[in-house]
Design a protein that fits this description.
- It is a single chain.
- This protein is mainly alpha-helical and 147 residues long.
- It contains eight helices and two strands.
- A two-stranded antiparallel sheet has the order 1-2.
- A hairpin with a 3-residue loop joins strand 1 and strand 2.
- The radius of gyration is 17 Å and the shape is globular.
- The relative contact order is 0.10.
Length: 147
C-alpha cells in the first residue's frame, strides 16, 4: 500500500511539473491584481513597485510572496524554481545565462527565514541582475510605445 501511495505521489509531482507554463503578460497582470486584492498596498507603495523599487517592508514582502507563488515560480518549501524563473523571464537574454542568474539567486534558505523574507531576498537578487535590467528596459519600451 505504501508503495502504491509513493507511486501516486511521484506521478502527481511529475504531472504538476508538466502543467506549469510561462505566464502571458495578461496572466501576470491578473495575478498581480489578485494579490493586490488579497494584500492591499498604499498608492505610494504601488508607485514604488512600478518604478522597480521594492522596499523591505512586510506588506511588500507578502505581496511578492503571493505573486511568486501564483506565478508558480516559488514554493514555501523549495524556494524559487530556477528553471521556471529562467523560462518566465528569459526575454531576449541567453537562456543559459538567465538560468545561471536564477540559480545564483535561488538560495536554499540556510538562514531559516520566513517564506516572505526568503521570496523577497531572491526577488531582490534577480531584480538587481541582468534579468531585472532586461525587464525594466522592456517595460520602458512598452510605456513609450503606448504613450
Amino acid at each position: 500500500m505504501k508503495f502504491f501511495i509513493a507511486i501516486l505521489a511521484v506521478v502527481a509531482l511529475a504531472h504538476a511539473e508538466v502543467e506549469w507554463k510561462v505566464k502571458t503578460p495578461a496572466e501576470i497582470k491578473a495575478i498581480r491584481e489578485e494579490c493586490l486584492k488579497e494584500l492591499p498596498l498604499s498608492e505610494e507603495t504601488i508607485q514604488h513597485l512600478k518604478n522597480f523599487v521594492f522596499p523591505d517592508e512586510e506588506p511588500v514582502r507578502k505581496y511578492l510572496l503571493c505573486s511568486t507563488k501564483k506565478l508558480g515560480i516559488f514554493s514555501e518549501h523549495e524556494g524559487y524554481n530556477a528553471e521556471r524563473v529562467a523560462q518566465q523571464f528569459k526575454a531576449d537574454l541567453d537562456a543559459a545565462e538567465v538560468l545561471a542568474i536564477a540559480q545564483g539567486c535561488a538560495d536554499k534558505n540556510e538562514q531559516g527565514s520566513s517564506a516572505e523574507i526568503w521570496a523577497y531576498r531572491g526577488h531582490k537578487c534577480m531584480v538587481s541582475s541582468k534579468i531585472g535590467e532586461q525587464i525594466k528596459a522592456h517595460l520602458r519600451k512598452q510605456a513609450e510605445e503606448h504613450a
